[in-house]
Amino acid sequence: xxxxxxxxxxxxxxxxxxxxxxxxxxxxxxxxxxxxxxxxxxxxxxxxxxxxxxxxxxxxxxxxxxxxxxxxxxxxxxxxxxxxxxxxxxxxxxxxxxxxxxxxxxxxxxxxxxxxxxxxxxxxxxxxxxxxxxxxxxxxxxxxxxxxxxxxxxxxxxxxxxxxxxxxxxxxxxxxxxxxxxxxxxxxxxxxxxxxxxxxxxxxxxxxxxxxxxxxxxxxxxxxxxxxxxxxxxxxxxxxxxxxxxxxxxxxxxxxxxxxxxxxxxxxxxxxxxxxxxxxxxxxxxxxxxxxxxxxxxxxxxxxxxxxxxxxxxxxxxxxxxxxxxxxxxxxxxxxxxxxxxxxxxxxxxxxxxxxxxxxxxxxxxxxxxxxxxxxxxxxxxxxxxxxxxxxxxxxxxxxxxxxxxxxxxxxxxxxxxxxxxxxxxxxxxxxxxxxxxxxxxxxxxxxxxxxxxxxxxxxxxxxxxxxxxxxxxxxxxxxxxxxxxxxxxxxxxxxxxxxxxxxxxxxxxxxxxxxxxxxxxxxxxxxxxxxxxxxxxxxxxxxxxxxxxxxxxxxxxxxxxxxxxxxxxxxxxxxxxxxxxxxxxxxxxxxxxxxxxxxxxxxxxxxxxxxxxxxxxxxxxxxxxxxxxxxxxxxxxxxxxxxxxxxxxxxxxxxxxxx
Length: 660
Known about the structure:
Layout: E1 6-12, H1 26-39, H2 59-68, H3 74-83, E2 91-94, E3 100-104, H4 128-147, E4 165-170, E5 178-185, E6 191-198, H5 212-235, E7 241-242, E8 251-252, H6 254-267, H7 279-282, H8 299-302, H9 305-313, H10 316-328, H11 335-350, H12 364-374, E9 406-408, H13 431-435, E10 442-443, E11 446-448, E12 457-465, E13 470-478, E14 485-490, E15 498-503, E16 507-516, H14 523-526, E17 534-539, E18 543-544, E19 550-555, E20 559-560, E21 568-573, E22 583-592, E23 597-602, E24 608-609, E25 615-620, E26 633-643, E27 650-659
Parallel strand pairs: 1-12, 3-4, 4-6, 9-11, 20-27
Antiparallel strand pairs: 1-17, 2-3, 5-6, 7-8, 10-16, 11-16, 12-15, 13-14, 13-16, 18-19, 19-21, 21-25, 22-23, 22-24, 22-26, 26-27
Helix pairs in contact: 1-2, 1-3, 4-5, 5-6, 6-9, 9-10, 10-11
């Protein structure tokens, strides 16, 4: 049996600043015009979109055009003015409840699906496809405005013939379902808009049937989705982000799209279109809620399961409250702060509590932590879920695949960031997890099997070494079977470790779910400046002093020397608030097995101040005091933490092996 006494996890996060370009190059202006022409079905697919899936909602293209239309210069300004406008279709009707004007054609390229099928009321002279769209639009208005209480979109005066919301039915290119086009600003936050949807939805899986109703299924969810965008434009169109590591045109409207997907599922629950692209979320659990273009265009749509969680856990009013707060907080983006405040307010006023936390109050951080646990219990795992930890339709959802988890069957492989071995001791590859650390509002799933290999207790010290708060959940499966238990931990202060110890005879396996959960939108960018990750140590000789310093085994050990740049790193972590902040350095004295002193090394930075959970370290370049490389063999290392203020030093010893 392998003796294991601890598991230590540490995470690092970098910083990144947001930069937004204000000047448009000639190439970018041409690109915007080409994309806009393509969106309207009036031009070919632009080269920049060739081979790319642009998703089902074209609002992104229309929105980028809207953001930049006053920045066009020269000939591009003339082109932009000539292009911008509504569609001129032959026919229109007003929806039964009088909220919408539906524009359509029964001939030409925009001819509606089965234009000659007219059965409503024994034949009213209007194609069934158009009548179905008018009915769906009223259903969307009645639910989103009359039931949920969202502010009605601003009137467009007489554009489209009157002040009603206009829906244009045209032939959209590619796999686009529809889009919402902003038109004119009525205030710094509000803009008028109109909706465009497809005329036949000749798109899988809807084109597998010729029935009008099946094509209307796609139209229904599109209308609920796009009408919510008209509400977005009428509340706060500034709720978008620009990620500094992307191109200036890659604005991200993740909050728009995830809530619009939630709305389409809520208004037309029987269609379940959102399930079609859930793989773009569940297959990438490390991707944060803010993720969007260009890495995974569908992620912001697939992330609609997060507002679905919010609505099921707290109620739809929380999402409405968050959007209203976005407006009230002024020009955005403010959606993380707004959602956090909405959750806190609802938890306090409605008495929705979680006793795992000191004050029992939910916030965005704790809600996302719980959401990540719900995401484990989907598909066939849904039947295992404890009460209160699953979606109402979770059995139909995709699961986080085993390939997106890191499974430990043995505990003899140290994972030290960023020098992870290519595989664990049993051959499990580490490349996926190493290359995809959790973004802000993203998660990892660490599957600890064979806990009987752990001597006495399963001990974990989780270090979130970053200016971002981290939470940790454990999904613990009892030895004798039965419903898993959910244990939740929260980092009390930035840099403070999360610790727990569990007897190894209680659970047969534990799935640890660390999440990074900040309400600061810029923390998504910061992750990309210098990289970040965590370390996991599985040791039998890990020492914790009275002051809770944690010495880690040196890495790599043994070391196979391949060039003169190789070295062995020694580390120790600060583990208590009382000691954190003291000026300290690490000293390592190397001896041969015969007792000869080989070298004495100190931490490169000298005395430094370290926060709780941070590392003090030094590296041995494998040379003796004379500057000569030592020969292969076993060496003894005495590691000490030395304090500038005279606090008694702490010492540990270990063996290191050099292979040449």
